[in-house]
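Work Package 3 (structural annotation) set out to generate three-dimensional models for the target panel prioritized at the project kickoff. During this period the team completed the workflow that converts sequence records into C-alpha cells, so that structures can be stored uniformly alongside our sequence database. As a representative example, we reproduce one entry of 174 residues exactly as it appears in the project archive.
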Amino acid sequence: VVGIDAADNSLTAAQRQTPAEACFVTELAQADLTTLPSNVRLVFSARTARKDSLRLPGTTNYVECPAFNPDETEAFARRFLPSASAEWMSQFHALSSGIPRVQDYAIRAGNNNLLATLNALRPGGKNLNDVLRKLFQEAAQKSGTSYDFLMSCLAALPAPIPLRHLSGVSQLQE
C-alpha cells in the first residue's frame, strides 16, 4: 500500500506556482500501473469537496471517512481514558460530534483527565474550526505574538506556507 495523505493539498500547491507545475499526485493517479504486482494499492486522502480535482481514474473506489459513531468514539477514548463511564462517553461523543481530530484535541488538552477533557469541549461542544482557532491562539500566546497579527501573516501568504516564509513575515523563529 502506497499512501498519499492530503493529496488535494499537493495539487493546490502545484497549481499555485508561477507558472503552474505538474503535480506528482495527478501523474501517479494517471500512470499506467498495470506492470506493478497485483497486490499493490494506491491510497489518496483528500477532502471530499476536492476529490474531483485529483482527476482519478473512473475505476477508483471512494471510501468516505465519516465522524465516529458512539462505539468508535468509545474505542478511541478508552485507549487514553479507560476508566470513563458510559455517561462520560455519551457526553464526549456529543460534545465532539464524533469528530476524531476534535476528540484527539480534547484528550490532549485534558491531559488524560476525564473532567478536563470534557471541559476542553464545553460549554456547547467544539467543531474542527473551533479547535484549530484555539490551537492558533495558543501558539500565538506562546510565541508572544498577537493572534490577529499571526492570522494576518497567514492570510497574506499563499497556501501552503513554507515555515521559513511564515517565520520571516511574522518574525518568529522557525
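The CA atoms of residues 85 and 117 lie 13 Å apart.
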